[in-house]
Amino acid sequence: MARFVRKQKNEIGLSPEALLFRGVKRTDKTLLRIINFDAENLQEKEIKTVKEAIEFQNSDSVTWFNIDGVDNPEIMKEIASGFGFEKIILSDVMDTLSRPKITEYSNCIFLSVKMLKEDEESDNVAIENLSLIITPSVLISFQEKKGDVFEPVRDRIRRQTKRIRNSGTDYLTYALLDVVIDNYIYIIGRLGEKIEELDNRIVQVSDKQMLDEINTYKRELNFLRKNIKPAKEVMLGLAKTESELIQDSTEVFLKELVDNITQANESSDSYREILSDQLTIYHTNISSKLNDIMKFLTIFSVIFIPLTFIAGVYGTNFEYIPELHYKYSYFIMLAAMLIIAIVMLLYFKRKKWF
Amino acid sequence: MARFVRKQKNEIGLSPEALLFRGVKRTDKTLLRIINFDAENLQEKEIKTVKEAIEFQNSDSVTWFNIDGVDNPEIMKEIASGFGFEKIILSDVMDTLSRPKITEYSNCIFLSVKMLKEDEESDNVAIENLSLIITPSVLISFQEKKGDVFEPVRDRIRRQTKRIRNSGTDYLTYALLDVVIDNYIYIIGRLGEKIEELDNRIVQVSDKQMLDEINTYKRELNFLRKNIKPAKEVMLGLAKTESELIQDSTEVFLKELVDNITQANESSDSYREILSDQLTIYHTNISSKLNDIMKFLTIFSVIFIPLTFIAGVYGTNFEYIPELHYKYSYFIMLAAMLIIAIVMLLYFKRKKWF
Amino acid sequence: MARFVRKQKNEIGLSPEALLFRGVKRTDKTLLRIINFDAENLQEKEIKTVKEAIEFQNSDSVTWFNIDGVDNPEIMKEIASGFGFEKIILSDVMDTLSRPKITEYSNCIFLSVKMLKEDEESDNVAIENLSLIITPSVLISFQEKKGDVFEPVRDRIRRQTKRIRNSGTDYLTYALLDVVIDNYIYIIGRLGEKIEELDNRIVQVSDKQMLDEINTYKRELNFLRKNIKPAKEVMLGLAKTESELIQDSTEVFLKELVDNITQANESSDSYREILSDQLTIYHTNISSKLNDIMKFLTIFSVIFIPLTFIAGVYGTNFEYIPELHYKYSYFIMLAAMLIIAIVMLLYFKRKKWF
Amino acid sequence: MARFVRKQKNEIGLSPEALLFRGVKRTDKTLLRIINFDAENLQEKEIKTVKEAIEFQNSDSVTWFNIDGVDNPEIMKEIASGFGFEKIILSDVMDTLSRPKITEYSNCIFLSVKMLKEDEESDNVAIENLSLIITPSVLISFQEKKGDVFEPVRDRIRRQTKRIRNSGTDYLTYALLDVVIDNYIYIIGRLGEKIEELDNRIVQVSDKQMLDEINTYKRELNFLRKNIKPAKEVMLGLAKTESELIQDSTEVFLKELVDNITQANESSDSYREILSDQLTIYHTNISSKLNDIMKFLTIFSVIFIPLTFIAGVYGTNFEYIPELHYKYSYFIMLAAMLIIAIVMLLYFKRKKWF
Amino acid sequence: MARFVRKQKNEIGLSPEALLFRGVKRTDKTLLRIINFDAENLQEKEIKTVKEAIEFQNSDSVTWFNIDGVDNPEIMKEIASGFGFEKIILSDVMDTLSRPKITEYSNCIFLSVKMLKEDEESDNVAIENLSLIITPSVLISFQEKKGDVFEPVRDRIRRQTKRIRNSGTDYLTYALLDVVIDNYIYIIGRLGEKIEELDNRIVQVSDKQMLDEINTYKRELNFLRKNIKPAKEVMLGLAKTESELIQDSTEVFLKELVDNITQANESSDSYREILSDQLTIYHTNISSKLNDIMKFLTIFSVIFIPLTFIAGVYGTNFEYIPELHYKYSYFIMLAAMLIIAIVMLLYFKRKKWF
Fold first, then answer.
1. If phi over 0 gives left and psi between -120 and 50 gives alpha, with beta otherwise, what is residue A228?
2. Which fold has domain A287-350?
3. Smaller CB count within 10 Å for chain D: N or C?
4. Nearest CA in chain A to B91
């Protein structure tokens, strides 16, 4: 699950501009979609060739050019030459295993983050690399496969919400990243609910299966953290950029992004602490239960030890053991044993040993 | 209790300016109150409409406009348009689960912190989000419900304390935040008293219930820390701001706020260390007690083992065991056993095993 | 002992300039003393009213105005108005529980640190809040009670040591703070001696009382650290200040202060590590001793188990047990038992089990 | 393996410019190779004397001068004087045990990093010191022995890849360092595969050999980390340099290097955490298995203790024990023993003790 | 050994310029030596009075004035007045227990570091305080006693090594500090060898004596670290100074110093980690060995428990025990016991309990 960056031997020494797809192929066909809008007009369509998108480059309206599937070097090449991007940008887009980052170029800002999405059926979290290229009039977004979390943003554009239809690509970028971070918070919250639910159960009783649960949650949380943590650097980079692509009016929203990602990180930190506390409680419970058992068993044994010894003494075959011949000796012995046992029990009780 | 930030699925992708209340609804009706004062005059009243408050906007006197209840989007909208605020500010006000923050806008400073208040009846700590909007002549404060901790400030205004009646909204802001931080210190102190009281008890005797106490205090302290820690950033932000809304003469008081919140944080750090030490002492005590019991029981058993063995030997049915036929054999055996037991005890004693 | 900052409920919301004494009242009467000197002249006297001190304000000579006892609001008020200080300074002076700090005002520098002093009789460490107000010609020092650690400085002034008699209030400040820090180092050193002495004892033998010693030293060290740590910020603040009240020639001495307080902090860090190592050694010793005992006892028991079993076998009442009837059976059994025991002992020995 | 820096007694106090080889001699003969190229031409040859390389110094084309073997002071001297380098640079080149570093000189940039290379036969990682001297037209690289990881770069130069043939020594430097870092990632990834494979095994069963595996991986990872960590400083230094030797167009690639090395460091951090978790799981498993055994054995013993006691009672030789004479006593005793054993088992079962 | 800074009660409050020797007196007579040189000439002699050294102050040649023994206030006074130094410098020189530091004065740079030197006979590390005062033409070095580590530098001067004879006091300072740091690395390396040698032994067998070794090395390493760590600040301060006393050409060598001290610190960090790992391995080994013993003993006991029980049953004195009268009962019992023991052993074996 962890998706660490790895290199294949044959990837070493490639040109940084080589358009090589790295990752798991997730789609058969690259899907190109366009949403072009300004305050009055809205045009939404699927396009066949990159060329159709390039035409929007110099219009006054805002265009959101979304590409699903990043494994086709041909399309990447067309985008690079059509929009005049450095080739290294597209190489970064195709490296879906790379670390979230933000880089400013002379004619655009490139940024990539991990997109987390809950798969409602399997209760799993799907991870995808999202790359954005911000240009003055076109925002290009690259996703690894069809189906995304941006439907609410499309709805806002369609419903002609004033702000988004009157702003540029920078505000659109904010809107997309806001959804990404909201999903982070949502997914951490879902995991958090399970963790807090365990919190109530663990104080009552501890069994081995809880340990497995804790370890599972710990791994899931680590997985989330690894993907969310570096996104903060990207948000900070975006909020602090002095690029002309970001208008002053958008800055307050970018600060909002930083606040949100900080909040996501802090609550993941909190859950980590809770998990660590749960682990301690689990181990304390287990060891305290074991101690109780061993103590009980030991006390139980100890009580019988002098009694068995006494029986042993009267089991000896000496010729002259006076006690053996008194009529009530046997019953006296039994009574003595009972008294010894009771006295020991009382002594242990008073010492609060059980 | 922890009130972590969570997102509902349907909140994802909302416009940042959507006036959506997030949190637990705590009041039925929004309550608007006005205190308007300058060095000579004082006017205090409950108002029905936001419009009445807006009128004070351009007066030379200072107005404290307090709103109890932040779940009414209509009122928020009126405030935004009446005072000319960015809508995102009011959206932040309504998000009572958000992280404490401070943001400067062109015509105001917005800040929010968590307000802790001891519920004297239930001995619980109630938490509320406090938002402040500082403008040149009006300070707007938003609380989640009626009833607050600011009565001493109102008294100071009424009693015509020179400084507060002659200063602007910046000093009033200081006065409110000072009360908030004083409450932090007070509440940490209350918890601290319990922790220190436990400190005396735990060295004497350790039982399971103390572990529960420690864990309870730890959770409470973590809860307090999570809410207090980020407030320091807000205080620092306020002390360092170069906004014209903050007069030079107020700066020394804002530094005082930073000192106080630092002190609150440090004493919460101290209590955390004490709790962690207590946990160690508890575990040391428990394990040392268990070790003592096991050692005692083992030594007890060990003393009987050779004795039982001797009895066993004379319980064998061999035909020729010379000792069996001497008259005093039985008593000699008992004496030997006694001597063996005493020698062993002395040996263990000399070795300081018990 | 820990003296954490606490708030009383009724202190919340007070004006920051309210002259309220916080702390433990330690003196009955406020004592005012004046030392006025320049290169040639020296005047030392006890004064009755603040007014007498104020007269020195504009002289060319240097005046050290020392106040023992900070619980009298009247005197504070006179000082504030007489010297033209902000009232908040005096409010800070009276809050003896506050955190060490340094604040620059337009006409003075205010700083406060904790003063540690060994009570030679009781071997305890007394803590006191020391506040200094540095003005061009008068240095005002506030102590909580009579009797202080500054006698050596007074002696240096009286003995007409060139440097101190020719310098201003800044050098005098340095001299006082130097004594304060020297006392920190001295007191840490005293505690350190005890810790190092324990270091030698603990490797030989560990008993419960040593654990108590370690815990006591740990608490004492934490107490010292909590009071000394924040003083470093004050020294750094003083060394870095660009106030005109500090002459260039004094700066090198202020850097010396920073060096000294750093040294104090580092040696307290070292002792903390030593204590932590001692704790580990203690626990290792205790658990290793317990293990040795349990191992011994277990081995002892195990050797008797097969022997007792053999005796048991020959204690059965079967009619046909051939061995029972041979004449030397009993002695052969005893010999066999001895051999078994020796073989087991040798086996355990070879395995290095004891 | 660790190759810590050590000093021989006789090395102390040597002039910093003394050309003394430090490290393990790895080659018999120093090998000098030249690749000289521009957009159109390419010349690749082995040379005999340093002089031949120096001639390229003032040409417009780019020359990569590679030296295999750094233990020959004569050659170092010739390079220093031929290219006009400070002698300390060559002294650093010959100190193969030194820490990665970057230093700017007036006429060149010197940098050194550790080069990791997988030895495919032995599955070991070979480490070598790589030094680079960047001058306007010649890039000089020093390796400890023949055979390197740079073949892909040579291929790119030969295949006339546009970018590399049209750029200067700065881009060539990037290309070499990129290969070095790719090898870091590859080697960490190889180790990571083993660690993750262990991750699956360890949850099922824990044996001593796994502990050895974990410790081995931990050491290998520490070895890698120690060599990779300081390389980040070098990459940052290169990315931030304002030297004219680095063209603006190359900067984006240098930032790429920083991203890659960061990624390498982060994944090594992740593996470290995984190893630490595995250690915890291992110890939990071992101790939980031991506890289960001890619990089983104790319960087993405890059940027999009262039974043996009963047998002991009826083994006593009292004259009057009524039970001994009833016909079915023996069988009743056996039945009672069975019942006692079953009751105890059920009790322990219900208490969930096994 | 640790040489923590301590204050005597009577040292508190002394003037910072008081020339009081602090430390252990290590020499009877102060020894003054002069080496005066320029590119052509070299003069080396022992002098009687400070005055002779002062004469070199204004010459163009470089003079290294070395003083062995810092406990003579008279000589210090003469140096201060002769060279025109602030008295506080000499006070620092005499305080041999103080922390390494660097301070710039108007006419000189003062720095002090700890000098470590291996005593080859006793295998101990001797520590000495080294103070340097850098002036334009004279470098003054203060050592605590005769005999030092600088002989290689003197040799370099005598052998007319070009660089050192043509440079100023700044390069000479570098040369001395380089020797000091080389000794740090050498001494850490010596300790490191022992630690690595232990590393090989500890995986095979763990005994108590190894624990002592680990603890000894840990203390020695801590001692080294405490003395070496602060030297880095001094080197950084020297490398970053903008004083005119340091020529541009020397700066690259000072950076070298920073690199070297960083390397020393890093390798001491590495050894610390190794020691900490060794401690963990030791404890794991010890506890695993104990567990094996206890497991063996417990299993051994458990096997005999049912056998002894059976013997007990046939030792009862019931009148009617049918088995007692069959001829082969005894042998059947023995056989049954053997089978039970074997079955139990197999069961435990299959469960992998031993």
1. alpha
2. Methane Monooxygenase Hydroxylase; Chain G, domain 1 (1.20.58)
3. N
4. A256
